[in-house]
Specification:
By secondary structure, the protein is an all-alpha fold. The chain has helices at about 1-15, 20-30, 35-55, 70-90, 120-130, 135-165, 165-175, 185, 195-220.
């Protein structure tokens, strides 16, 4: 259990210290944005692998036992998680997490019309969907912590963007985007203009889900998500 808690603590530190504006700006100035993002993604992946390995070695203390219907929750929810994460990482987004640099001030990826934090929404769906079929203490700490990290990250990134843009431009941004998915579109404040990049990465995200469902989850995590069905 100690190894698992240390892995969680290291993961949280890695998502608090390097993204802090002064630290992030200094690292980007030193390494360049692309190298910074690559190294940061690599570090996050290593820490996530540590968490998974430590979680599998930790003792099982059940608060509730799994039943077949609970396995349906992630099977149904994860296509949306993969979609948000895949399309979000590939989109231009000056508000939140992305692998791409925004171009002109108004230049945004299609996914930001749905939510300005697509990657965090994807991780939130991933974490919440895995709680019902995993009723042990370690899983609740893992998925609950990841979900909380995604939730906290949204207002943190919003405050950072507001400081960068200024109150006037931030008000204009809020009039055309939303944190809650599809809220701005359903409210008539914006429209989805799906471009080729959006459809490409949406399809890649869903293809990733299919592979993970049929083979990847079992190979990488050691658990067959369809075993209970």
């Amino acid at each position: 259990m100690l190894n698992f808690l240390l892995a969680i603590f290291a993961f949280l530190l890695a998502h608090v210290i390097p993204p802090a504006p002064p630290v992030r700006a200094r690292l980007i100035a030193l390494l360049g944005r692309r190298v910074y993002l690559t190294l940061y993604s690599f570090l996050s992946t290593l820490l996530l692998v540590w968490i998974i390995v430590a979680a599998r070695q930790a003792p099982l203390i059940y608060l509730w036992y799994p039943v077949p219907w609970q396995a349906l929750v992630p099977v149904i929810a994860m296509p949306f998680a993969f979609w948000f994460i895949g399309a979000g990482l590939a989109a231009q987004n000056r508000f939140s997490i992305t692998f791409r640099r925004s171009g002109e001030t108004g230049s945004q990826g299609s996914i930001t019309a749905i939510t300005r934090h697509p990657v965090l929404v994807g991780f939130l769906i991933w974490s919440l969907a895995h709680i019902p079929p995993n009723g042990d203490v370690v899983s609740l700490i893992l998925f609950g912590g990841m979900g909380l990290l995604a939730l906290v990250g949204m207002p943190v990134l919003d405050r950072r963007t507001r400081r960068r843009l200024g109150d006037t431009e931030w008000a204009a941004v809020c009039a055309q985007t939303s944190v809650v998915p599809f809220r701005a579109i359903l409210g008539g404040r914006t429209h989805l203009r799906a471009d080729g990049n959006f459809w490409l990465w949406s399809c890649l995200g869903l293809a990733g889900y299919v592979w993970f469902l049929l083979q990847g989850h079992r190979l990488l995590i050691g658990v067959d998500p369809l075993a209970w069905l």
